[in-house]
Amino acid sequence: MRSAGAVRFRDPQIEMAHGAGGKASRRLVEGLIAPLLGGPLLGPLMDAAVLELGAERVALTADAFVVRPLRFPGGSIGELAVNGTLNDLAMAAARPAALVVTLVLEAGLAASVLEAEVRAIAAAAERAGVGVVGGDTKVVEHGKADGMYITTTGLGIVDPRARLSPAAVRPGDRVLLSGPIGDHGITILLARGELDFEASLCSDTRPVLPFVERLLDVAADGLRWMRDPTRGGVASALNELAVDTRLGVGLLEEMIPLRDQVRGACELLGLDPLHIANEGQFLAVLAPEVADAALAAVRATPGGEAAALIGEIRTEPAGAVLSTAPYGGARIVDMLVGDPLPRIC
Amino acid sequence: MRSAGAVRFRDPQIEMAHGAGGKASRRLVEGLIAPLLGGPLLGPLMDAAVLELGAERVALTADAFVVRPLRFPGGSIGELAVNGTLNDLAMAAARPAALVVTLVLEAGLAASVLEAEVRAIAAAAERAGVGVVGGDTKVVEHGKADGMYITTTGLGIVDPRARLSPAAVRPGDRVLLSGPIGDHGITILLARGELDFEASLCSDTRPVLPFVERLLDVAADGLRWMRDPTRGGVASALNELAVDTRLGVGLLEEMIPLRDQVRGACELLGLDPLHIANEGQFLAVLAPEVADAALAAVRATPGGEAAALIGEIRTEPAGAVLSTAPYGGARIVDMLVGDPLPRIC
Predict the structure, then answer these.
(1) Are A193 and A309 contained in the same domain?
(2) Which of A165, A195, B209, B223 could bridge B219 with an S-S bond, Cβ 3.0-4.6 Å?
(3) Which pLDDT tens digits describe chain A residue by residue (345 residues)?
């Protein structure tokens, strides 16, 4: 679908924005990394790669986590590193079979901090019923990492009912969002104490596989596409969908679940909530005939009560996302540009 | 075999030695990480985890690379990151099916340096006939990494002929080493320019799967155990074997292939070549009746000409490695203690 080579990477050096999940990230991956590594399938563009292995379809993914601070309301890097990778598998409709965790530790890190994160990794893996089967640990000099960076690899078995592909997306399909957006990004920002703003927000980090299983039960091959809107937010994920399908996405702004505190922080900071990262939400494109049943199924699953159908797939504007406000007026929602909230995962 | 919980981690903070592959690394993994993550199978102790997936036996591994400098005679971090992971699969007798690469990039990294390493990754993967099917890229602030850290995940299919296990090792088994030791570690040390010593050494980074395939052809289940002696060197790998099997390893010092330049550098620095890291060598334990044929097979494979049988498995000294010098005299070879050569991979 994606035309490899259409994007050129001309930036002379790496900037924070290249890791933000928006336009610069896409330029780096599509313009430099993917062409050299042999194909447009690589990179953050796909949450997980799906491979045929004997009679099984397996999904393989790996994600690096560099969030700071290491602990924040609602979670920590260890929990995030497991949930994030599990969610990439879930977006490929894959149940986890094994995790591998690699740690880059900074010399001088308190053993108690490491122990807390290993416990968080263990708890998140146990919650998902998957084992950590291997790992690797490297140590770099003091100052050469922020306590720790974690990369988590996930291997999963794809549900045989799943038929996910951007190629399956049709005009008239509905877009489901699992819950309120922006909690994770704004929580991290507040946890850094750089902002004179109080809010009782928590990261939304959680595994989303339980929702995906209910969706497969009710929608089967009416479930066309899924993505967890992490870095770059809902806007970047839906823009990638629009580009990949050459279709348009029409959003109904008032249908998008959003906490007042996130809305307030975004207004204060001049940020669009659609650009803020989430760590426990997902987007799904559903055939119109199964959309209502799918929404009911997600809402009936604990933690899915705020799910909503937030828009639909259209032929126009091809390759773009158009958001309509409640009292008229519409705007093109672009991918994230720059990096307003660095290192949120 | 290994008694989990026997090791306690009491160190108050992380030090460079915890990443060196020797005693401190083992204490960290066995005393803290593995018990919390639910078992003694985890960590650098195993090069790759082997899982049953439907009818297939698959191997899964991930390794973090933080070598500095990024480029050195004979290789670079990108090539090392692919070969190192391929070799962990090879040590499980697994052929690679897919790689996933995650990058942590430092803001300010020249795009040309990144491009060179992505090219190195692509070339090493192509040489091994395996695709890079996915990845992830994060960016941290200038000063928070040394250009880049890479984690490489490998998924492989285990050769059905392989019956590798420390439990299969018997007294009388022979120990094969694939070639000269210490080239990688000493090359990295010299590349840092911290040493007033000139040598025309190159890293030995290379994939070792071609040798493993020949070994399986001639030895089948006479091939008991393999390990690539990276961090911590041959001494640490064989000590782990000795501890895991509760048997002894007897080495014949004069049989160990070693370049004069590595010997000279080690004498100058007071290092034991058996503690120096390798990135293109492996150790194999073979049943005595197949050992000579196995040696001939490795020697007949390009790059294996210097392979040697360097010792044998004995009942004594149980749990330890004893090295015998050419003109009499024997010494216990311990695991690496401390970190004389930090960040060599």
Answers:
(1) yes
(2) B223
(3) 344 446 789 999 999 999 998 999 989 988 999 889 875 444 434 678 999 988 889 999 999 999 999 999 999 999 999 999 999 999 999 999 999 999 999 999 999 999 999 999 999 999 999 999 999 999 999 999 999 999 999 999 999 999 999 999 999 999 999 999 999 999 999 999 877 777 789 999 999 999 999 999 999 889 999 999 999 999 999 999 999 999 999 999 999 999 999 999 999 999 999 999 999 999 999 999 999 999 999 999 999 999 999 999 999 999 999 999 988 899 999 999 988 888 999
In the numeric block, which tokens belong to residue A97? Answer: 């079979």
CATH (domain of A255):
3.90.650.10
Could you list the beta-strand ranges (E) of chain B.
49-53, 56-65, 71-72, 75-76, 94-106, 132-140, 148-158, 174-177, 223-227, 248-252, 283-286, 308-314, 321-324, 330-332
B238 touches chain A (CB under 8 A): no
Give the DSSP H or E segment for A238. Answer: helix A233-245
For residue A156, list chain B residues with Cβ-Cβ distance below 8 A: none
B292 and B313 housed in the same domain: yes
d(CA A234, CA A335): 9
Q: What is the ipTM of this complex?
A: 0.95
Look up the domain containing B271 and give its range.
166-332
Write out chain A residues lying below 8 Å of B150, CB-based: none
Question: Cβ contact (<8 Å) for A60 and B141?
Answer: no
Helix (H) or strand (E) holding A297: helix A288-299
Q: Which of A43, A137, A155 sits opposite B44 (nearest CB)?
A: A137
Mark which residues 117-176 of A lie under 8 Å from B by CB. 118-119, 121-122, 125-126, 131-141, 143-146, 149, 151, 153, 155, 157
Q: Does B13 touch chain A (CB under 8 A)?
A: yes
What is the model's pTM?
0.95
**Nearest residue on chain B to A119, judged by CA atoms?**
B36
Are residues B195 and B323 both part of a single domain?
Answer: yes
Continuous H helices in chain B: 23-28, 34-37, 77-91, 111-127, 183-191, 209-219, 233-245, 260-269, 288-299
| B103 → chain A, closest CA residue | A64
